[in-house]
Amino acid sequence: MKDVLNYCAAHQDEYLEQLKDFLRIPSISTSEEAKADIAKAASFVAAQLKGAGMNSVAIHPTKGHPVVYGEWLGAKGAPTVLIYGHYDVQPPDPLDLWKTPPFEPTIRDGKIFARGSADDKGQAFIHMKVVEAFMKTRGALPVNVKFIVEGEEEIGSTNLADFVKKNKKMLACDVILISDTHMMGVKQPSITYGLRGLTYLEMTVTAAKGDMHSGTFGGGVANPIQVLAEILTACKDPKTGKIKIPGFYDDVVVMTKKERAELAKLPHSDAKWAKDIGATKVHGEKGFTTVERTGTRPTFEINGIWGGHTGAGVKTVLPAKASAKVSMRLVANQNPMKIAKLFMDYVKKVTPDTVKCEVKLYDNNGHPALTPIDSAGMRAAAAAIKAVYKKDPFFTREGGSIPVVADFQQLLGSEAVLLGFGLPDDNLHAPNEKFDIIQFSNGMKTAACFLDEFAKIKA
Ligand code: BES
Ligand code: MN
Ligand code: MN
Q1: Which residues surround ligand 2, an ion (CB under 5 A)?
Q2: Does ligand 1 come within 6 angstroms of the Cβ of 433?
Q3: Is 163 a member of any domain?
Q4: pTM, to two decimals
Q5: CATH code where residue 421 lies
């Protein structure tokens, strides 16, 4: 592997300059005005794949943002690795909290700061460069490789499952390799074997046809903010942290004693964890550790709540309406549609007849996913980590979601390996997102070794 690893190291500065060009494109998938930048980012990826020696490189249109595909199938008899990444990014706001502008990538203290640096442009770029390094040094890869880089991950990959369904043959593979998660630390390499799923809803409680004077009408009609708060608090028991929606836990796969024992061995301190996020102490479902609560247990979260007077000064208003956005992180084998239905039924049941409550389901849903630690891909990833870091990886379950993982597993019948090179303090979705350059260089080494190890395991 020396030839390829040396090539990556020798070209790192040049690669980082190219990554900066990628990061300068504000490809925000939620934004209607970003269509041109989305197209620009897709073209950038296509050009990179061509430059890396991939064949059949194409930008495939979908009902939403395009999917970029490229392949190299010259390794006769060797297995096929499907590499997934996303070129879309989250909106950068609040802008005033960024030390340097989100789309002007800047290197400080060995980290590259920009929206998308870790999530996911910087991580996806690692694989494009590794493949290029193999092709430039050897003219071949140890395995067949297919790339699928999409532009709708941050909005729930709404059109990707359809694309996968229609292109099953093109995407057929032995393993799916994804770098869109983080490891525990620069010197604490870890591999993710589980992701949570997600279901996202919005509800509006209406008490009257318009806002009212709170003196004239107050006391005689329901307050929609009060009712909304009551409905929301009925969803979770404050003492035990259990979600009270009937049937909510029915499909949750119970953790084995062995899994809980393994998770308990992960280096974690509640005190440090709380301090790092500026919380006074940890909080969550009774009977579970913080590692379990954030990775292996489902949650109910209120993401936003509004209504009435929130401007300066006083306004004695009795509002007509109040709204909230709520979401639930799900774990294997909960189904996001089924859970959404259970939530809607429960809300209907607990809503008093003094108000109307409308609930709308967003289509930014995702199924949870689990990959067996002893699968071939996971073993190859562990061997690659060992080769680069000189130690065995930890295996973790992540609280975040990558909706396409479960779709890939179901539609293509292959396991996904979540070999992420981000770090827990990367500020994903927040101001000052960054990607450590050491993670970029170790990431290239590990990704290169993965291809080599997977070929060996499957030989
Ligand atoms: N890369 C993240 C997911 C992630 C982050 C996994 C950290 C593990 C650790 C991904 O881009 C993301 O943000 N996903 C969204 C999906 C949602 C919009 C459907 C999420 O998890 O909120
Ligand atoms: Mn991501
Ligand atoms: Mn993200």
Answers
A1: 119-120, 180
A2: no
A3: yes
A4: 0.95
A5: 3.40.630.10
